[in-house]
Amino acid sequence: MKARLARSEGRRLFGGDPKNYDRVRPGHAEGVYEILRERCGLRQDVKVLEVGPGTGKATRRLLDLGAEPLVGIEPDPRLATFLRESLGGRVELRETALEDAELETDFGLAAAAASFHWVDEDIGLAKLHAALQPGAWVALWWTSFGDETRPDPFMQAVDPLFENVPHSPSGPSAGRPSYVRDAELRLAALARADFVERHHDEMRWTNEWDAEGIRGLYATFSPINSLEADRRRDLLDAVERIAEVEFDGCVEKRLITSLYTARRLA
Questions:
Q1: How far is CA 55 from CA 77, 108, 115, in A?
Q2: Cβ(51)–Cβ(73) under 8 Å?
Q3: pTM of the predicted model, to two decimals?
Q4: What pLDDT sits at residue 1?
């Protein structure tokens, strides 16, 4: 069985090249933001807490939709610096892990985009529940780079490269779906934290990368970033070569955005 990265590794594995991360990651399905507006009450002047904003892919959309003020919990100081420089002070950033954060109790929405698998789930959800106003919503979402229910030719082509590469905490456990698509466990965790009106939504879409872009995408994946520099470079070289030679320099991937929402009892 493959080793699994510790959750604490998420505090250091994504800040090495934030410009590349921001360039090659496609963000998330627009349907997420429609649900945040229509179900979760995101509107002008709602105070929002965002867990792990990273380079701000979701942060910018939250701001566009009215989040004000927006407080970001970002434990990696390099990502916090990138956000301050790129967003011009529109976000209040607190450089800490959610488990260690001291939070006020007046947030109208708590959000986490592609980050909550790096948090101790029960501790993190209890923190968010306490930080929300009565009746306010939590929204956790991820975008998976492949549909595990259907063949993925590029993933099949590069899988042998990852034989001895550790799993992210979002990887599958024995006999279960991946963390982000294991609706039974994610909804049960929300229930343990006393959230009500629990929902799971999935949105399917596609995105394309050229060979250099797919190399850049794989360079953002935590298991690859956990490797020594020489091994990381060799693996990325191989990924780019497969994209160029076997896929004519164009890789289309099916993506699934998985969204979990729930409400604090009014």
A1: 11, 23, 12
A2: yes
A3: 0.96
A4: 61
